[in-house]
């Protein structure tokens, strides 16, 4: 089966993000293809979850260890906008 890009809410997922979502939804909902996934995602919405920025220097003052430049991991959360249903969280491809 060939990878495809899936759109959820206002976010168009990359092929890798779409594959990750497909694997999670396939296990949960028993879907068999990307067309079925896209049909299911028409009732879902998504949001980007930014990594929280809590610089140790602000919290600990002079005792804080040197911080790495990596500010955390950005995720995309997919959720049903019509009813309480499964939520899926996948790692976003773009981490800038």
UniProtKB/TrEMBL annotation:
It comes from Planococcus halotolerans. This is Uncharacterized protein.
């Amino acid at each position: 089966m060939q990878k495809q890009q899936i759109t959820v809410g206002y976010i168009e997922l990359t092929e890798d993000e779409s594959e990750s979502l497909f694997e999670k939804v396939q296990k949960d909902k028993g879907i068999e293809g990307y067309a079925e996934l896209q049909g299911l995602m028409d009732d879902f919405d998504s949001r980007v979850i930014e990594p929280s920025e809590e610089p140790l220097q602000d919290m600990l003052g002079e005792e804080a260890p040197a911080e790495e430049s990596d500010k955390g991991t950005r995720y995309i959360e997919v959720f049903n906008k019509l009813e309480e249903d499964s939520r899926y969280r996948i790692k976003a491809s773009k981490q800038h």
